[in-house]
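Practice problem: ribonuclease H
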Amino acid sequence: MVYIMEFKVDGACRGNGQPGSTAVAVACLFTRNGTYIPKARHLPPDNPVPTNQRAEIRAIIIALKWALVRYSELSMGPYMDVRIKSDSKYVVNSMTTWIYKWIDNGWYNAAGRPVVNTDLFQRAFALQNKISQIGKVTYAWIPREENLDADIECKEALDRIQ
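Answer key — structure tokens:
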């Protein structure tokens, strides 16, 4: 049996990269009846300060963790098919192509500089590897217009914390 979990993810940051900036990450799990369950997380300022890119990666982490929790609640241990959709080409390309090159290069990019957001990519990749033991994870880029559920959740979460 295959258990499919589809997420749309998004991240947002007000004051992108500036001291005092505020960020949220959102994962929306779509259910079989076509509705979704949102899970938003306020991201307190960390080091480095929040950015849109960090929020987008943390949304992926939320979705991967959520998939593992949901799997642990299933009694039959089915094959997992986790599908993550994002309107961030940066995150999708990072998790599908670039991350393997970065790992091979010791977390340095093609220009020989350290990869930005390595800490978050390492966390996401570790979670992805856990899921790979019980199934697969795929990432797909979608236009922003197709990611409105997650985008709206981000904006509302930012409004709630300000």
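Discussion: The mean pLDDT is 90. Students who identified this feature from the tokens alone can consider the problem solved.
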